[in-house]
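BUG: 3D viewer hangs when loading the predicted structure for this chain

Environment: internal workstation, default settings.
Expected: structure renders.
Actual: progress bar stalls at 90%.

Input used:
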Amino acid sequence: MSQQTPAAETERPRQVEPERRAAPAQAPAAGRTRYDAFFFLIAAAVVLLDQATKVVIRARLDPGEAWPDADWVLHIVNVSNSGAAFGILQGQTSFLVITSLVGVAAIVLYYLYPPLEHGLLRVALGLQLGGAAGNLIDRVRFGEVTDFINFDFWPAFNVADASISIGVVTIFWFFLVVEAERLRRKPDRP
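Structure tokens produced before the viewer hung:
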């Protein structure tokens, strides 16, 4: 009889153990939903800020008008850009709309497959998605993008452009610094 009791005791933990393992499998789905919401919230915030600032600029400044005086390094100006960054591809609206749609789809697919584990990459891609969508809205509605932030030494840009640029720099920094450090710390496997 004493031999049956230890066998029965060892069977009970085996039955309980799979239940404990099943519970964490549900947690990533709930966590994933929260991460997805954060990603799309960032993108939506960028689109809303981008569109709101462009509405204000178009309503308050005439095309080509700048504020404040020329003595300032930073100017708020109402400039239309029918091309891409730095004025390239002027007048190629259809091409830019198609490439923007492809870019938005690529960002979403890259975000979803494989799912990104690092929060910084989610933020960076959320910024890029919001920026691409913000400029896409302008291209579809007006055939051009409204730029309004202008430094004397740099071409005019907008919130969407800044978000895309910050997202790209963040991703480069992540892979050059954070991932390189992680790989450096990882022990070599034969």
